[in-house]
Design brief:
The complex is a heterodimer.
Chain A (H helix, E strand, L loop, with lengths): L1 E9 L3 H12 L5 E4 L15 E3 L8 E2 H14 L3 E3 L3 E5 L4 E6 L3 E12 L3 E3 L15 E3 H11 L6 E5 L3 H12 L3 E7 L8 H8 L6 E3 L1 E7 L6 E6 L12 E4 L2 E4 L3 E3 L2 H5 L24 E3 L10 H20 L7 E7 L3 E5 L2 E4 L5 E8 L3 E10 L2 E11 L5 E6 L7 E8 L1
Parallel strand pairs in A: 1-2, 1-8, 2-5, 8-19, 10-17, 11-12, 11-17, 12-13, 20-27
Antiparallel strand pairs in A: 3-4, 6-7, 7-8, 9-18, 14-15, 15-16, 20-22, 21-23, 23-26, 24-25, 24-27
Helix pairs in contact in A: 1-2, 1-7, 3-4, 4-5
Chain B lengths: L1 E5 L8 E7 L2 E6 L4 H12 L2 E2 L2 E7 L5 E6 L3 E2 L3 H10 L1 E3 L7 E3 L9 E3 L10
Parallel strand pairs in B: 5-8
Antiparallel strand pairs in B: 1-2, 2-3, 4-7, 5-6, 6-10, 9-10
The chains are: A alpha/beta, B alpha+beta.
Chain lengths: ~425, ~120
């Protein structure tokens, strides 16, 4: 039996919750929110630190508080959701196959799907660190769950590989719980996380940040006994004679997040190799008609506030489609990355007369000081903005006046003055 | 004296240059709002932070509840406050905003719950 819904949202983390609330407020009654966990809120429930909500709620909140504000709205608005429900597949006709304990196997047919599955952590296997396979090696998010939800400490002394935000947050968290964090090693010459986290998570507690360093050996048979840390050259190759043994019983890996797009791919959604998320236009529509993507499944964000705002835009697009007010007769342009730019979202602009400004999010490849970010069409710079500094860890955006767009391609580049 | 610092009052992370003498701030450059100025002055005179952690729960649906200090506290009191947080226990049910510890270590802030937690009866 197939049940019909106007909008089905996959994932009830910040993106899914914000999309559901927005779509309901825009008058869509039959929304279904699908979540595989036993509760709403996604990863926010374990992000107990503060710093969320400054843009969306104009106050500083912790992750659980941010999630609770949306969860209460879901209940107030009577939005239908299903917990403990796994989506097994979606197809290009927007059939969604689900399983859970109560309903067994159930298929939903949606007019629009919003993908909001978030991302997962890169595991140890992706790093190929030589050595033994003892216990005591965790991804940073797993350790965060142990400490903040299960109430358990992962060990006594730790080294953290990777300076992503979760790793930095966990360096502070473990220190507060009485653990000794001996070092954070980052293979890149610049930190992976937000500068504010370097300050308040490492510097406040005198935790050394070793840039251009990586873990080259894992020691210990049953439990981790230590790691070898080595300096790397500009090609990220270990430099001989720079090995240093650090005794520890815990190694956290904070080495990147990967959007969870297995379902998207099955539905025929085209992915961008740089973001590992869907290729979308400025309406956040994927290559499959009526399937939208937002939040960390689209590209990994620094701030949950931006996730929520992006999800609202995806919801607006889905609502327009259902109401039949989405723009027609669009001229398609591709957005390509030029010098200094790692990726852009969107990757496609479907031009419409009604658009005023097109917002393009981007990340730089390296730390760039005093640069101009240019938008170039047919060899002509149609828009340019000065940036004092671009950091790969911090997403930035430009807003291009849509009447200046020309041709079939636009290049975004970051050029030294 | 001059110090480079990054404002942590919001995720924008303005990079600022602060000129000061002792604990007197003479000039702040690079901030984009008044919060940055206040942060720079706090960092030179009395650095403050919000502390977040978890407190042990009895009879709850989860073994711990997330908590925070309801105001920023002096940075040098963080570990004194943590000591009280680690010792503390609270009985479920718990409401968001419920005071778990009143003014621990005389820090000037209360420790409050940041999540609601249901009671679980063991049968």
């Amino acid at each position: 039996m197939t049940e019909k819904r106007s909008i089905v949202i996959i994932g009830a983390g910040p993106a899914g919750l914000a999309a559901a609330v927005r779509a309901r407020k825009s008058g869509i009654k039959d929304i279904l929110l699908l979540e595989r966990d036993y509760q709403l809120g996604g990863i926010l429930k374990q992000c107990i630190h503060n710093g969320f909500g400054l843009h969306v709620f104009k106050e500083e909140l912790t992750g659980p508080e941010f999630a609770l504000r949306y969860i209460r709205k879901i209940h107030e608005l009577g939005i239908e959701y299903k917990l403990g429900t796994m989506v097994i597949s979606i197809d290009e006709n927007k059939n969604i196959t689900t399983v859970n304990e109560q309903d067994g196997l159930r298929i939903y047919k949606a007019e629009a799907i919003i993908l909001a599955m978030g991302c997962r952590e890169r595991p140890r296997g992706a790093l190929r660190i030589p050595g033994t396979n003892p216990s005591g090696i965790f991804s940073a998010g797993t350790a965060q769950r142990f400490v903040n939800i299960e109430g358990m400490k992962p060990g006594k002394t730790a080294v953290i590989l990777g300076s992503g935000d979760i790793g930095l947050i966990m360096a502070r968290r473990m220190t507060l719980e009485g653990m000794k964090v001996k070092a954070v090693c980052e293979i890149m010459p610049h930190p992976g996380g937000l500068t504010r986290n370097i300050v308040q998570c490492l510097e406040d507690f005198d935790i050394p940040l070793k840039l251009s360093h990586t873990v080259t050996q894992i020691h210990g048979k049953t439990r981790l006994e230590g790691v070898t840390v080595t300096k790397v050259d500009e090609n990220y190759k270990p430099i001989e004679g720079t090995d240093q043994f650090i005794k520890c019983d815990t190694l956290l890996l904070s080495v990147g997040l990967i959007p969870e797009n297995e379902l998207s791919e099955e539905a025929g959604v085209l992915l961008d190799p740089s973001t590992k998320g869907a290729v979308v236009n400025q309406y956040l529509e994927t290559s499959v008609d009526g399937i939208y993507a937002c939040g960390n499944v689209l590209h990994v964000h620094d701030l949950v506030d931006y996730v929520a705002l992006e999800a609202e835009r995806a919801a607006d697009s889905a609502v327009k489609r259902i109401k039949g007010t989405n723009p027609q007769k669009r001229k398609r342009m591709t957005v390509t990355t030029g010098e200094g730019i790692r990726y852009t979202v969107p990757q496609i602009i479907d031009r419409d007369e009604k658009d005023k400004k097109i917002k393009i999010y981007f990340r730089s490849k390296a730390i760039l000081k005093t640069v101009r970010v240019n938008a170039v069409c047919k060899g002509k710079t149609i828009y340019s903005r000065k940036f004092k500094q671009l950091v790969p860890a911090e997403m930035e955006y430009i807003r291009i006046p849509s009447e200046k767009l020309k041709g079939r391609n636009i290049i975004i580049e970051a050029v030294k003055k | 004296m001059k110090r480079e610092m990054v404002c942590i009052r919001c995720p924008k992370g303005c990079r600022m240059t602060v000129e000061y003498e002792g604990t007197k701030v003479l000039n702040v450059k690079g901030n984009s709002c008044s919060k940055g100025l206040a942060y720079a002055i706090d960092e030179i005179t009395k650095p403050v932070r919000i502390v977040t952690s978890t407190v042990k729960v009895i009879n709850g649906e989860l073994p711990v509840v997330p908590v925070k200090t309801d105001k920023a506290i002096r940075r040098n009191l963080i570990f004194d406050v943590m000591e009280k947080i680690i010792e503390a226990e609270v009985v479920a049910p718990i409401k968001e905003g419920q005071v778990i510890l009143e003014n621990p270590a005389d820090c000037g802030a209360d420790v409050v719950a940041t999540l609601e937690l249901r009671k679980v009866t063991n049968d």
